[in-house]
Design the sequence.
């Protein structure tokens, strides 16, 4: 069954704890936390302090997506704050294999992220070392953008490589996910769907989560 990871980027930050409890009760599987530094992406969001504040609020795994330059400098802080998965952009890592090893050595599930225009081939050498590959289905930086259809064949390609190599990493997609795009992604091989506005802007979060999981 596909897992649903609500992105708190679209939550009401003034009552973040309640927002997280609401989606947990609504059937969310992970909580997705978007970290942006104003350099790698043109927006600034949250850091380890927010991850640490959220940790006691939920039993769900915290899925931390680093959209930052020089992620190596902050891995330990996010691990100590309680991240269960830390994903870094291939476009931001000069020594990707070392960064992935470092995340694992901190006792955290390592993930790698590709922007929509970055080919899957870039991460072929490290597929056996990661627990998650996140394929961005929008250009990172903001919630509420339109799904980029040309990423679907990338999901299919990654799914094929995963099967051929007998690997078990999750394939996560993020950006513009609603029931229709969710179905395209799961059919192509996605195992985790990140959704921000579709869940948090909905009056009934439970219904929104169920629609992503099971279709409408
Ligand atoms: O990482 C990002 C944006 O950079 C995403 O996690 C967005 O938060 C997804 O938002 P929606 O497209 O679902 O509104």
Sequence:
């Amino acid at each position: 069954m596909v897992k649903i990871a609500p992105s708190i980027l679209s939550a009401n930050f003034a009552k973040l704890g309640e927002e997280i409890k609401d989606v947990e009760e609504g059937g969310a599987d992970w909580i997705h936390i978007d970290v942006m530094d104003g350099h790698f992406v043109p927006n600034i969001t949250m850091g380890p302090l927010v991850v640490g504040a959220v940790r006691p609020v939920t039993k769900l795994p915290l899925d931390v997506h680093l959209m930052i330059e020089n992620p190596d400098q902050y891995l330990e802080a996010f691990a100590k704050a309680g991240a269960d998965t830390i994903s870094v952009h291939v476009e931001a890592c000069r020594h990707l294999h070392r960064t992935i090893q470092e995340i694992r050595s901190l006792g955290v599930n390592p993930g790698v992220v590709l922007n929509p225009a970055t080919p899957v081939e870039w991460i072929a050498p490290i597929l056996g070392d990661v627990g998650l590959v996140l394929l961005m289905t929008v250009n990172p930086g903001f919630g509420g953008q339109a799904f980029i259809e040309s990423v679907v064949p990338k999901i299919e390609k990654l799914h094929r490589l995963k099967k051929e190599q007998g690997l078990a990493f999750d394939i996560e997609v993020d950006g513009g996910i609603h029931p229709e795009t969710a179905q395209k992604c799961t059919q192509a091989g996605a195992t985790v769907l990140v959704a921000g506005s579709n869940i948090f802007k909905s009056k009934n979060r439970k219904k929104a989560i169920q629609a992503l999981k099971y279709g409408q």
Summary: The first helix runs from residue 16 to 25.
